[in-house]
Amino acid sequence: MAKFPGIKSTADGAAIVVWVETQITQGACAYPITSSTTMGSGYQAVLANGGTNIWGEKMAFIESESEHSSASACEGFAVAGGRVTNFTSGQGLVLMKEVLYTISGKRLPVVFHIGARALTSHSLNVHAGHDDVMAVSDCGWGMLFGRNAQEAGDLALISRRTAEETDTPFFNIMDGFLTTHTIENVFLPEAEMMEEFVGSPQKSLVNMMDPYHPIMSGVVQNQDSYMKGKIAQRAYTDKVEQILESSMEEFYKLTGRRHGLISTYEMDDAEYAIVGMGSMIETAEAAVDYLREEKSIKVGLVHVTSFRPFPGKQLTEALHRVRSISVLERMDNPLAESNPLTTEIKAALADNIQRDKSGNMKMPIIFSGSAGLGSRDVRPDDIMAVVDNMIKDKKKYFAIGIDHELGLPTMDSTDIRPEGTFSMRGHSVGGYGSVTTNKVIATIVADLFDMYVQAYPKYGSEKKGLPTTYYLTVSPSHVKTHNELEFVEFVPLNDVNAFNLANPLKGLQPEGMLFFQTQKTNHSDIWSDIPQWAQKIILNKKIKVLALDTVKIAKDVSSQPDLVQRMQGIVLLGIFLNATPFLDRSGISEGELMISVEKSLRKYFSNRGEQVVKDNLNCVKRGFKEVFEVTQPQKEEVLS
Description:
Blueprint: E1 7-11, H1 13-24, E2 27-29, H2 37-48, E3 60-62, H3 67-79, E4 84-88, H4 90-95, H5 97-105, E5 111-116, H6 131-134, E6 142-145, H7 149-166, E7 170-175, E8 183-188, H8 191-198, H9 201-204, H10 226-232, H11 234-237, H12 240-255, E9 262-265, E10 272-276, H13 279-295, E11 299-304, E12 306-308, H14 312-319, E13 324-329, H15 340-352, E14 365-370, H16 380-391, E15 397-399, E16 422-429, H17 434-449, E17 452-458, E18 467-475, E19 488-493, H18 498-501, E20 508-517, H19 523-528, H20 532-540, E21 544-548, H21 550-557, H22 564-579, H23 582-586, H24 590-605, H25 610-626, E22 628-629, H26 635-639
Parallel strand pairs: 2-3, 2-4, 4-5, 5-7, 6-7, 10-11, 10-13, 13-14, 14-15, 16-19, 19-20, 20-21
Antiparallel strand pairs: 1-8, 6-12, 8-17, 9-11, 16-18, 17-18, 21-22
Helix pairs in contact: 1-2, 1-7, 3-5, 7-12, 13-16, 14-15, 17-22, 17-24, 21-22, 21-25, 22-25, 24-25
């Protein structure tokens, strides 16, 4: 067993980064921008509650007037020998670009955490895209991409150690919302592990503003000097790849979690390969498993963890034997020869593939596609369409997930979830507390029932009061897919208007469960409120219908009027625990269950006071006890 296996918990990508940085840094300088805001606010909350780093130092949090200024503040903090961080996304990252060059040029080993976000172009979008990080890929920073929350936390530490050993700044990148806000099972690094792996700032950082040891930095250089200084930087950058690999190996020895410049999946005998960065490549793993097991297609995956330094030799070794490669990228730059990752891979293969005795070079056929722009859903069926496109040698450039002449057609959706998986898709209204409830449910299910979870809210740029959707998957094995759920066993409707907006029963499996909020208690009246087309689906699929007035419970219980609206969402936690099979399977008593529920509620609400925790717990208890099943009429009565 590893020396430091980690502390078993649940967290999203933002939370695990905050866990790491509030223990190893001395300060953060940041300006809030979606989707990185929760990292900055999480860091500041630790300070506000009197937190210190693992060496007992009080940390600083500086919120300046813009992202450009926050990067400049980080530069000053690092020049003075401090260990500092920053959290940003999208336009905020691009606004920093001028300062990013000077930070790398001064060899300042800072680490910035990026919730990668689509840039505003034809429209504003606050969701996942890689065009922001690609816009700064020439600034001399290391760039590491995580696929999930665990990797976001692990790479935060690996970035820090490598940055300080090479005097090179690093970006730790995760997909905005898809990773920053998705709750998953994680192992939080222990304080002792972080102290051993990274060490105290005083041991590795230099104060360049020390008047007793003066140096010149950031000066003006003319024709005689500038180029010499620029090329001389390679004395630092040439060491980065080797030291990064060394840091990853040391991290593996301490934790048992292995990372590399690239990670491969089912590539030993692969004839076709998909290459990409971020969360959609973990989704692709599930599709690869299905294609190999059900279709006998020899397809594999390569995830590029390190975009800078670019692992050209490692990629060539992984890819040179395959027939075809499809590179998936969360951006589109149509005026370039290819999108950034595709361009790098083409160059790497051309530079590193060995010629045969006749002087010929055999290159795989390279396809390139845009996927998941602005968090457009990337489903396993989309990945299957990419593989089919390779096999049939069709579109060299394509897009997935949209209806367009460049789009790849998909077949009917395939349920490729592991056996024993349980999924929920909720329909609610912004401000009802349902998204927080979803996080609490995930935490409890993971902790109490020892299951793997993934809780993902479908955030929009809309404000409170508008429809929202949230997803939860519970599985006996790690949840790989990062997409909107198409196959579910439970659909809660906090928003009774959901029937008028779309089909909330879509994908609800036979003998599944439907809950909806209602003020009524008469079973026939409740049934009459369900549209006839939905009644037919419910009867044909033998769906169990549950109901309860969660609003009334929230009004009865809440001691603070402003929390009534949000507490109606937390009632759903009790309903979930009553209706789903996990409690019965576990053999845990109701008393033991509520003790665990209270523990989880404190995690989320303790900062609001003891009474708020008690009110939320009472809401859960009442939801658990009072939810009831609606008696349905005979099938013939409805269908006649």
